Amino acid sequence: MKKTLKAYRVMAWIVGTLIIVLYVAVALKYLTTDGSGIQKFGSDVTSVVGFAHGWLYMVYLVLVAILARNARWSIPFTVTTLLMGLVPVATFWAERRATRLVHAKFPEEV
Fold it and tell me: Are 92 and 16 contacting, i.e. CB atoms less than 8 angstroms apart?
């Protein structure tokens, strides 16, 4: 349980950070003047970070599923945690919430 929780926490922080960067890059891409350097930068960052976030979100989903099974989370709690990887800043909240629950239910294992 300890290793799974640690892996989940690390992945939650990575996915959370990438989604924030992605939202900023998308704003730069679409809210700036076409052809400007900032618009080009936003476009480049969007393609790279979007690709990385997509793959790493899949890893996040797998880790949430494994942790949910091991910690015997309810379906609503699990679904909420899964979806939080798509909402900027919410991933950090979900990580703290999940960590508190695991520590409360399994203090001897973590």
Answer: yes
The two tokens of residue 74 are 């309810």
pLDDT by residue (tens digit) across 78-102?
Answer: 999 999 888 889 999 999 999 999 9
Query: Residues 92, 12: contact at Cβ < 8 Å?
Result: yes
What's the predicted TM-score (pTM) here? Answer: 0.86
Phi then psi for residue 73, to 5 deg, are -75, 155
Q: In this predicted structure, what is the pLDDT of residue 22? A: 94
Helices (H), 1-110: 2-31, 37-71, 75-83, 90-105
Cβ(85)–Cβ(60) under 8 Å?
yes
- Rounded CA-CA distance 60/68 in Å is 12
